[in-house]
């Protein structure tokens, strides 16, 4: 702005008298700084500067009467900023203004192509893509990452078959939700235990214990909080083999004789060794028996397999001195028994009574 | 001739050059003739080329656009100015329904070689309607090109390219940086292409695509990030429509990460378009989800409250760091 003219002061007034100047020639002013005061017929009014600038000349003296629109102040011709509303910044800093048209030429570089799942797996395995073999154009999926991970470890292999099944089953959500509680007992027999048909005796005693405490012969589902009790006792028998752990199911144990059971167990053992066990044979157990004592060890905290709620582990038979019913010191044969149950579905009382019944029924088979 | 020019002066330089060399160019708009434009973009043109080629229009944007379309269809090269992008709305019908369709409607017999210039964006503490960023509205319309310069050199070259283009071009000038810096512009009449973006900084770790005044803060952010060990590649989109897909994809293929920065509000902004094309084509190359940093979905706040809305350097630095940390 070069000339600032007396603005319309409103109320139909056409002129005003200069009262006093607040600025002088050569002074630098900011927006809204008071330039002068004027008196109209009604009042004395301060006139603010509409711009920032340097005053070249103040036009008029105190006492002069001036009309609306007359020049009051002449500003130094500063830089022509235009006549726009608002405040323009005008530093005019020098810059280099270099640029390439389009993308940087000849890079041809490409990041590794991976599915998001593969990337996430890579990170969980604590690897970066630098550790992977350079294969341009390859699209990495999760299995590729696993294969690369295996290759990176001496002696590392990806599990297959029943070993893989065991690893995944033991750590799935249902398994993690179980609340295990363990109970053990020494089943003492003042005599010599007939080790022939030992496992059939265990199965038989278990079936009778299940009849006494059916709570341990049930399936439990945590999310729906439902329980399914079974009329028959189908015992999963843990069988160790060089290929891994198998748990074939012996159905309706309560209706089978010791001889039946012995024959079935023999059949199962052969089939497992030859890897010919039928998949249906591995399903539907209502409770599990692990006779780990056949190999060694006494007490254990065996792991419950959902949806079952109990597993009985029998350790290795041993002899120790004990008192018989007459109070005489005699050699006692001891069968260590460990029971793990899911405390969401069974009470301690049910578990204890189950184990006690099992012990009583087992001893009766020796009688 | 080489001079140190601001972005605003570069616009003026380009207009002078083209008016001189193409007698069919005509300029029209409010206050552009006698006043030389409220930002002084058209200063000196009336004196040099006269009232018939430098036309002061009435305060009527629909008239400006309608007359422009008529002139363009009949062989002139009109360069219309809307004093602020916020004032373009009365002119929308002429732009969307006629300028954009002239070629299609006449099966190529007629085209509409018009340029619609307007200052856009916030940052000058102005009242309502003076701070718009609505480039996305125009980018959505088939038949229109949208160009946004971010430096004096690019303003000069892109405006010449726009004027010489046989189809309508919306040329939005980021007013906040009209006079904030200058660079050496050669007044040689060389146009820049209207289908390429510009790489302003080469980098390794992340691609930043931005345009307009945000380019300045993006470059400042890149400097800060470089000190923190993050190497940004900065692309000035420049031509909002059509997008230079090839260059953007080349860059993201290299870096695996993308951040789009724009002042315009987020919803249905041009950032969404860029992120979609990168996600569709380079999904498996991406190290993390592409992100956008954009204005809030509100009207630009007035006066000094603008600084709550405008994206500053620190905000861009934070956004880049977040992308670099993803996935945790």
Question: How would you concisely characterize the structure shown here?
Answer:
The complex is a heterodimer of chains A (367) and B (328). In chain A, 23% of the residues lie in helices and 28% in strands. Chain A has 367 residues and is α+β, with helices and mostly antiparallel strands.
Care to describe what's here?
The complex is a heterodimer of chains A (367) and B (328). With 367 residues, chain A is α+β, with helices and mostly antiparallel strands. Chain A has 7 helices and 23 strands. Chain A has helices at 116-124, 142-151, 161-170, 173-177, 198-212, 258-273, 348-366; strands at residues 3-5, 15-21, 28-29, 34-39, 44-48, 53-58, 65-67, 71-75, 93-94, 100-101, 113-114, 139-140, 180-189, 218-221, 226-229, 235-237, 239-241, 244-246, 249-250, 287-290, 310-314, 318-323, 329-342. In chain A, strands 13, 16, 19, 20, 21, 22 and 23 form a 7-stranded mixed β-sheet that branches. A 4-stranded antiparallel β-sheet of chain A has the order 1-8-6-3, with no helix packed on it. A 4-stranded antiparallel β-sheet of chain A has the order 5-4-2-7, with no helix packed on it. Chain A starts with a strand and ends with a helix. The model of chain A has no long low-confidence stretch (mean pLDDT 91). The radius of gyration of chain B is 20 Å and the shape is globular. Chain B is of the alpha/beta class and 328 residues long. The longest helix of chain B has 15 residues, at 7-21. At the A-B interface, strand 9, strand 10, strand 11 and helix 1 of A face helix 7, strand 8, strand 9, strand 11 and helix 9 of B. Strand 10 of chain A pairs antiparallel with strand 9 (198-201) of chain B.
Average pLDDT of chain B? 96
Provide the gyration radius of chain B in Å.
20 Å
Instruction: Give the termini separation of chain A.
Output: 121 Å
| Biggest sheet descriptor of chain B | 7 strands, mixed
Q: Regions of chain B with pLDDT < 50 over 5+ consecutive residues?
A: none
Low-confidence region ranges of chain A: none
The secondary structure category of chain A is: alpha+beta
SS element count, helices of chain A: 7
Oligomer: heterodimer
Reading the helices and strands of chain B in chain order gives EHEHEHEHHEHEHEEEEHEEHEHEH
| Biggest beta-sheet profile of chain A | 7 strands, mixed
**Greatest interface and its participating residue counts:** A-B, 37 and 54 residues
User: What string, H for helix and E for strand, traces the elements of chain A in order?
Assistant: EEEEEEEEEEEHEHHHEHEEEEEEHEEEEH
Per DSSP E runs of 2 or more residues, the count of β-strands of chain B stands at 14
Percent in helix of chain B: 25-40%
Total E-strand runs of chain A:
23
